Amino acid sequence: MQAHTANNSRGDNPAELRTAPELLLHHAAVRGDKTAMREKEYGIWQSWTWTQMKDEILALAGGLASIGFKRGDKLGIIGANRPQLYWGMCAAQCLGGIPVPLYKDMVAEELQYVLEHAGVQFMLAEDQEQVDKVMEVQAECPALTQIVYDDQRGMRDYDHTHLHSIESMQRAGRELAKAKPDFLQGEIDKNNGSDVGIFLYTSGTTGKPKGVVLSHDNIIVTARNTVAYDSLSDREETLSYLPLAWVGDHIFSYGQAYVAGYCVNCPEDETTVATDMREIGPTYYFAPPRIFENMLTSVSIRMEDASAFKQKMFHYFMGVAKKTGVALINGDDVSAAEKFKYWLGNILIYGPLKNTLGLSKIRIAYTAGEAIGPEIFEFFRSLGINVKQLYGQTEASVYITIQPDGEVYADTVGVPAPDVEVKIADSGEVIYRSPGVFLEYFKNAESTRETKNDEGWVLTGDAGYFDDRGHLKIIDRAKDVGKLNDDSMFAPKYIENKLKFFSQIQEAVVFGDARDYATAFINIDLEAISNWAERNNIAYASYQELAGHPQVYDMILGNIEQVNRDLASDAHLSGSQISRFLILHKELDADDGELTRTRKVRRRIVLEKYAVLIDALYSGKTNCFIRTEVVFEDGRKGSIEGDLKIADVPVFDALAKAS
Q1: Which residue among 44, 269, 281, 389 is least crowded, i.e. fewest CB within 10 A of its CB?
Q2: Torsion sign, CA atoms 139, 142, 144, 147
Q3: Taking the C-alpha atoms of 283, 284, 288 and 293 in order, what is their torsion angle to the nearest 10 degrees?
Q4: Beta carbons of 40 and 268 less than 8 angstroms apart
């Protein structure tokens, strides 16, 4: 086995506090007047200091206690990124309870499964829409007895016997505090770092979601380590826009915020994130690769519409940035002349561009979840934005590996995070152990044993290796790495990520295991392609019509040819070049079961649902008819049909031989 261990020592915390409620009280005492959270509502930013937030949370905790919430109970939380929902997490933990955040766009069946599986007794819902969703499945969830809601619009005529507004809960909590002034402090003091702190459900890529049980220590120790690693302080500003149920949001918007004492900002809604980000100017930022890709796509679209002079100036100074910006951010030597040109470029191009994207004040930015395209990675770093990659899992409380400053490479995910040990098993699978390792999968001892051994080592399910620099490279999911019939290695996720580096491609699914050659399904990026169509006066009435356009096929063919050229130079994957492809007549969708709520492809579902198309790719056909059932946004079901074109792709001779 290859083995690597981080040498970083744990960061200090003033009183070695081990739970979020203890940290809440600490910050209220030492930085009580400093802003802890903001929320934009009706176009106006509202703020809460640490003292005000403490009062809100303790009042809510008291209110929950007044309706029977007790130690060990679970509080389901569903909705967008609202301060009140984050307060609910801490309020539950004050009482020794367990928050169970859920994806806000869960359909009824998904919601019912998690509520029933976790045994949720209390719910905190954002608004009427989420309350209705919970009430729809409540009869199938016998443990669920009480629902609390935040937004009161539309709730007046509901039966409030077991339905409560947050305001009424907080009023009851304040009355409880008067009657029992020592009650909440006593409950907080009973908590231990080793107690269960939260349930976070996986996205369910291969089956039903699993409930990952994390302790307070898992979250707080991991947060403390990484706060020290990146020198995060209470001066940071971050934007909370990722799903509450995702472990990354729980670390960045909760765990690290409670350790460092920085401010978390909640956007007005998902459509205003870009605008709100420009107004806030976060210093600490996380985004999955798709967000960075979308930013670059929007920049590219705007430049294509710009005047010839502006385009020329943009491309010239981006050439300067590519040569000089990355060197500057890495601390390499740069000549005075190059520094001057970069300084000028910053005035004319980089500064205004960063301001437009809301990235002007970024000190540290991370991306994870999927591989990010080298060109995209280089673009943002060349602007002077310290974007780095990390590799993590829910089961690790996020952090497994992390990129140190000065050692940032597009093709690796860094070195072991503080206090994390990482090994490569003889099978090629990445395994790790750390203070963030989960306690268990709830009600699933078998999966727990399969994932975590008696020594605390966790099997990631990912295949990878350490390069000569000591940095980890991830190839693919270990179970997905296969072979073509000629014995060539086939790593579908690796190839799919290379395809998705192109702005025209939104999603890709590649096939080839135990086949003679590799093939692909493509989803086009509607924003990028529709903008191209508009500029070229190409009329279309739907996604399906645009996806089937001959010029769009030619564009995607060019993208795949480039991927094949890259694969031809890869000693291990040259045999996996794509020979045939088709563009799907619909976007893969979580509501149709084809993606998880974190937008990961459910490969098994796709294999079953589109078997007729896969057969056509391997039978030499040039087109194939398919009718597909879909779920519309309002819940109605319907179907989309089409006669899809199948195109051949040139493959290239291998340029290197595997050792």
Answers
A1: 44
A2: positive
A3: 20
A4: yes
Contacts of 268 (CB under 8 A, 6+ apart): 40, 41, 42, 43, 276
Q: Whole-angstrom Cα distance, residue 300 to residue 314? A: 10
Asked if residue 580 lies in contact with residue 646, where contact means CB atoms within 8 angstroms, the answer is yes
- Tell me the pLDDT tens digit for each residue of 487-532: 988 989 889 988 988 889 999 999 999 999 999 999 999 988 998 9
Residue at 411: amino acid letter = D
User: Which letter does DSSP use for residue 487 in this model?
Assistant: S
**DSSP class per residue in 199-243:** EEE---SSSS--EEEEEHHHHHHHHHHHHHHTT--TT-EEE--S-
Predicted confidence (pLDDT) at residue 371 exceeds the cutoff of 80: no
Two structure tokens written together for 503: 């702005």
Interstrand relation of 122-125 and 74-78 (parallel, antiparallel or unpaired)? parallel
Full-prediction pTM beyond 0.85?
Answer: no
Locate all alpha helices (DSSP H) within 101-255, ordered by sequence: 108-118, 128-137, 166-179, 183-190, 216-229, 247-250
The CA distance from 137 to 481, in Å, is 39
Could you give all domains of the chain from N- to C-terminal order, each with its CATH number?
2-266 (3.40.50.12780), 289-360+362-477 (3.40.50.12780), 481-648 (3.30.300.30)
How far apart (Å, rounded) are the C-alpha atoms in residues 625 and 627? 7
Looking only at the bridges linking them, the beta strands covering 415-416 and 421-424 are unpaired
Helix, strand, coil % over all residues of the chain, rounded to 5: 40, 25, 35
Degrees, nearest 5: CA angle 311-315-318: 135
Show the beta-strand stretches assigned E in 479-559: 482-483, 489-490, 505-511, 518-524
